[in-house]
Amino acid sequence: MAVRTLLFYFKIYLKITSQYFKVKMQYRADFIISSIGMLVTNLVGILPLWIIFNSVSSLEGFTYYEILFIYSFSLIALSPLQLFFDNIWNLWTHLIDGTFIKYYLKPINVMFYYMSEVFDIKGLSQLAFGAAGLIYASVQLGLSWNLVSIVLLLIALLGSSLIMVSLMIMAAATGFWITNPFHVIAFVFRFREIVKYPVTIFNNFFKFLFTFILPIGFVAFYPSQLFLKSFTDADLLAYCSPLVGVLLFSLAYLAWNKAIKSYSGTGS
Q: Which residues cross the membrane (predicted)?
């Protein structure tokens, strides 16, 4: 039954996404320009690292290529948010003008229906940039990869991706009570800049905050340690991203379902 349900939703997603692609390909210049813009944004993000490491040889014990590895890991982990959940940014307009009510009228999951309407193609350029950076940093660091480490990398990335996705969903869910969640979403989205750097560069208060309260340290820093160190030398927290991701997504899904039950349209 579970497999049949997954196949059912997969087929629907392909149909919805194919229609979205047809619409977007009518504006190819917009796609090209936005993809270039995404690449430039990620390149500019590396610039502070280059400036810092022109003055120092290490940052809290991390070399330039180790920081680049963490940075690239974060870009890959954040790509699903960009690709599959970008419609989060449009939620406030649907809530204000009352059009969100249409998502209740189909016999499918509301979150799936809403999020599947937008596939942000330019996120593919972020994914490619992150993968290229990860490979380049790995080569410079002399990291060796085998089937076990690659599978572990994919599992870690999946868990890491769920963390930021979950935080954004919970931020969006506030809109069902405060009507316009744009500023809450924008505030949470800013944390994507913090996840690109080691948690250890912060003081003890923020280390605790970003580990146990707002666990963005598990998006890139902690799981990266599995590959920057040997599996036996890595801290226990390095193995926790999948668990944290699943738990946080479960909370986000519960929050979303509770929130949509409180929605009654514009009332007009």
A: 31-53, 65-85, 127-157, 163-189, 201-224, 236-256
